[in-house]
Amino acid sequence: MSKNNFLVPGFRFAGIKAGIKKADKPDLALIYSEVPSVAAAAFTTNLTQAAPVTVSMKNIASGTCRAVVVNSGNANACTGPRGLKDAVAMTRAVAKALKVSERQVLVCSTGKIGVPMPMGKILSKIPAAAKALSPDGLLDAAEAILTTDNGIKVARASGKISGKTYAIAGFAKGAGMIAPEMKVGHATMLAYVLTDALVSKDVLTALFKKSVADTFNRVTVDGDMSTNDTAVVIANGLAGNRPFKAASAAGRKFAANLNAIMDSLARQMVMDGEGATKCVAIEVKGMKNEADAKKIAFTVANSPLVKTSFFGQDPNWGRILGAAGRAGATLKPDKVDIFYGKVCVARKGRSTGEAADRKAKGVMKHPAFTVTVDGHLGRGAFRVYSSDLTLEYVKINSCYRT
Hints:
Shape: globular
Number of helices: 11
């Protein structure tokens, strides 16, 4: 993977070792915009919010951002007043190193919960991270934010607005505690999207809010919402294009690229779910409304019995119908059809036979496939991406702290 493929004019990145993790791996990342930039962010709605979320929510209120500092190995969550002081100290240290306002700096952390931050290590390494900043350093930053991930998650695209070419790139981490329900401005997965397109603060916020709803808020690995979920988009305007409205042709094209980046990162997180071997799209349709479809999609996607059947490649559709029935949505089981890929295993709530089960099992051998639940009650539809539940997931999370 070439570093030059992830260049975004006006942005520099770094990823270095600060000694936060026990393993000798990069664990401190820095993103820097060389010019004033507009920004939007989304954060976890978990009432147990990590200190960096609290600080970043305050700092993003202006809709501008110059830098983001991210550490892995320690979540700085459930750390009390000391945690808040440490998060602020990180923004101040970055602001000093880059000569920007500390209110223009966002801070993110991921790792163990309830453990005080090793601030001596972090503060001593922030100047080194600033010196390491490079236009081609995005992949280094992407590596430094990982925890139990198997590898980096990156995506890129480009487009044209009023004859000016712009770049857009993103990177993310997330393998466990993935069930974000993030709200903009008010998302452990962390995601950062950078672009040199000229976008107004209001347009960027509106487009990002919709993309968060359509991508990051439609994935689940284990149904656990993190204390630290954060997604950030920053636009520095160096492409020099004319401003555009969200509903304009240029706005729709930019939104499509933004959505494509975020959707790719979201699906990469599911595919890299802790111990995961499958990425399964749960398509629910034919419901009275979207709200009902969403309830059923997430209930199916988070069901341990359903997820273990994905791992075992067992088309146990009864578990899916059972999950749908307890989702709290309007449902008539004797109207429901269930498909694995294009194979119908249940018609009107009844089995279509062993031959269909055998074909469905073949579908489930693939690393990615779709399960469709059709309620035949209306036009309400919703899609969620989920992973399987494996022995490796249990192993990872049974001794994460030790």
